[in-house]
Amino acid sequence: MKLQPILEVLESIAPVQNAESWDNVGLLTGDPGQEVKRAMLTIDYTSAVAVEAQHLKSDLIIGYHPPIFEPLKRVVAGSLVYDAIRRGVAIYSPHTALDVAEGGTNDMLADAVGIGERKPLKLILPKSSQYKLVVFVPEKEVEKVSDALFAAGAGRIGHYSACSFQSKGTGTFFGEAGAHPTVGKSGARENVPEVRIETVVPIEKVEEVLRALRAVHPYEQPAFDLQVLAAPPEGMGMGRVGPLRQPSSRAELFERIKRELGIAHLLIAGPQEGIVHRAAVCAGACGNHLDEAIAQKADLYLTGEMRHHDAIKAANAGITVVCTLHSNSERAVLRRLRDRLVNEVPEVEFQLSEADRDPFNIV
User: Fold this and answer.
1) pTM higher than 0.90
2) What is the mean pLDDT of residues 26-42?
3) Which residues make beta-bridge pairs with 242?
4) Cα 179 to Cα 337: distance, rounded to the nearest angstrom
5) Strand order in the sheet with 349-352
6) Helix (H, G, I), strand (E, B) or coil at 269
7) What does the alpha-carbon distance between residue 44 and residue 25 come to, in Å, rounded to a whole number?
């Protein structure tokens, strides 16, 4: 089948607009119109994974970590990206979009610990999609100007159109030499009854709306304000925190985490005895969210890796830090993602990489 419908399914599972602003997610190489018969899921697209994918004739790599992260200055023979492009292999990365998604990486970790009712450890603000336009118009021209703004795409809120707020006031100006005011005359200060029109404008409609404003506004220099509107939080965010379904001893949780994530060892800092009632999780390197875990009164914090001084800080706060090594905190989500893709895209064969593993070994 074509790649495009697979991309649509991936996008529905983990919408890329919810990824962190610094991240590089989505389709990184490939053509949405190309054919895909086999896809491989991996955390990292390494040389070993590339050889495995070539042997299995994979057309699509779903690589959790984006192999193209910072801007590339050249793509030449010998690089994994060059080889993928040359062989027509598409690469897609969900990364932090999957971390944030319901049922994604952090929910997988929360399930591994046994967290019941949960919420994000740190909320993210959605990217703004609208501006507020404020324009000042002579009273007799209000209908003409507002109609032009609405026709150009302003003033839509949900299922309502032509939405605005209008308030009366007084505008003042002094026309200097060379000015040709519509109201009054140059060389004198004027006081003009005006109406303040406030309305919303989708970001993609801003240029069109401003062209319409300038075309119909009676003033030589129309005065207006354009303000970015902050999007309200939607309950999505990084990490998860909440009470355990069943309070458990730390020793029991250590064994449970290893079993659920399929790993043999953990790095532990802080208390190693006692009962855990509340836990926090965050996939990858999440020392920067430690303060949130402390503020949320977590007894245990599960993550991939943490800096030395952050681990000491957590221990001093009475929190047990459990580190799995970076990619070991993420890899188990690939099974969930594979199962969902198999169910929603049965025409394609989805395989988990056997060559993918964390670069560190504990010996």
Assistant:
1) no
2) 97
3) 279
4) 65
5) 26-29, 90-93, 60-63, 38-42, 349-352
6) strand
7) 14
Q: Which domains does the chain have, with CATH numbers?
A: 3-94+332-352 (3.40.1390.30), 105-125+237-324 (3.40.1390.30), 130-228 (3.30.70.120)
Beta bridge partners of 285: 305
- Residue 89 per-residue DSSP state: -
Q: Where are the beta strands (DSSP E) in 203-239?
A: 224-228, 237-238
Picking from 195, 141, 197, 132, the residue whose alpha carbon sits closest to that of residue 165 is: 197
CA angle 148, 154, 160 (to 5 degrees): 110
The overall average pLDDT reported for the chain is 94
> CB-hemisphere CA count at 13 Å for 355?
15
pLDDT digits (tens, 9 = 90+) for 59-70: 999 999 999 998
Instruction: Write the pLDDT tens digit of every residue in 86-110.
Output: 999 999 999 999 999 999 999 999 9
Q: Quick check: helix, strand or coil at residue 133?
A: strand
